[in-house]
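BUG: 3D viewer hangs when loading the predicted structure for this chain

Environment: internal workstation, default settings.
Expected: structure renders.
Actual: progress bar stalls at 90%.

Input used:
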Amino acid sequence: MADGEHARDAFWVPSQSAVDPDRFTYTVPQVACVGPYESQFLMGGVSMAACIHALQVATDLPLLWATVQFAGATGLGADLDIHITRFAEGRSATQAVADLTDNGRMVVHMAAALGGVTNGPQHQFVQMPEVPAPMDCVPSRDIPFARPDNLAGHIERR
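Structure tokens produced before the viewer hung:
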């Protein structure tokens, strides 16, 4: 999956190094932050999205699963590094980690499996329950610290 296949204007997309394809940089924008005005910090889900994007671009494989450990917080405007390390590459899957750091300090450590068998049988083992469509649900207006310029202000919850 080439980097050009992704929306470059998505606020969670890091930039891949021209020198090392396993290194990425990401500067935390306002829209990726949550928290009180005087203490904006990068939302965990955005850091996960940035790491997943970096893993998929570096390996050219789709994500199967990921687990993340949040080791620290980082704030608005921080210049972050993401380093990808592959530690097992097989016929069907690659095991890799993404480490997101702020001036060498660990912020996120993500372990992931990428790849998978795409020509095997498809099964759905559990039937989904009947639920209302999202637009038929009542919107939630109680989103702490939501402002027009931060991530919480862009989320619609139902």
